[in-house]
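User: Can you help me understand a structure? I only have the sequence.
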Amino acid sequence: MASFGYQILGFGAGGSAAPYEVEFLVTAGGGGGGGTSNGGPQGKGAGGGGGAGGYRTLSAQEITPGSDITVTVGAGAAGKTQSTVAQSTPGGNSLIASDDFSTFTSAGGGSSAGHNAGSSPPAGTQFNGGSGGGKGGSVGNGGLGNQPSVSPAQGTNGGNGINVAKYIGGGGGGANSAGSNASGTQAGVGGAGTSNSITGSAITYAGGGGAGANGDYSTSAGAGGAGGGGAGTTPGTVGVAGTAALGGGGGGSGGRGVASNIVGGAGGSGVVIIKIPTASYTGTTTGSPDVSTSGDFTIVKYTGNGTYTA
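Assistant: Let's start by predicting it. Here is the structure, written out as tokens:
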């Protein structure tokens, strides 16, 4: 029989489509900023900054055509008043899961609170996370970042508060740098996030929230960290929310010297991004991701849960 000289490309053994490599960015939801209470002078200490959601990347990951990648995007934590600190929670985890590789998770950012909240276990553990929340409104250490521990680290620690004569909190940790400690004149500043160009443009993700100002001690509110961290605010003002789809920590509300019971800023929701060679992109998704192209790649950005079928 005559040969027509045809050559079939891009297929593996047995005629099946060949595996291909993709790249992922996985950022979790940010922790909520600390608030204040109206429970007396000490309860009016300013809120600390929320920790950024964990930031992780996964490159050169081989996937098999026909396999499903499940995406879960973590929500940002609600900001709380100091009087409801027992209900405060970290941001939601973001993750990707597939039969081709082990589940890959970024942890939600740690929350913060106002004066004396979380000074001893078990309440203190809620301030740990992808990045740690800042210690709110009194002396003590901020939450631990990179919890659970992974390498490279997914985040940093929150900043410390200062002594009870000042009632000033620390900034939330960011993906790239820790939240700053409070000083006598400055509430803690949120730690900076990390820049990444997976979409084709440089975007900074996972900045920590700034701590609120204390009206009795002429302190300045802490700025939010680059990468969506919400700013701390002046007394009596709700903390600024972290930016959605960047995983920023929420800003702490200002306190003392005014009627309190003010809520901290909510953490920003997370994001999961998949970078796929356009020649291999199937277009089979659920969850309505944002799809764009950059050079030879298709960028699939999830701000909510969904799937991609390879």
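Now, to help you interpret it: Confidence is low (pLDDT under 50) at residues 1-15, 117-123. The CA atoms of residues 239 and 265 lie 4 Å apart. Let me know which part you'd like to focus on.
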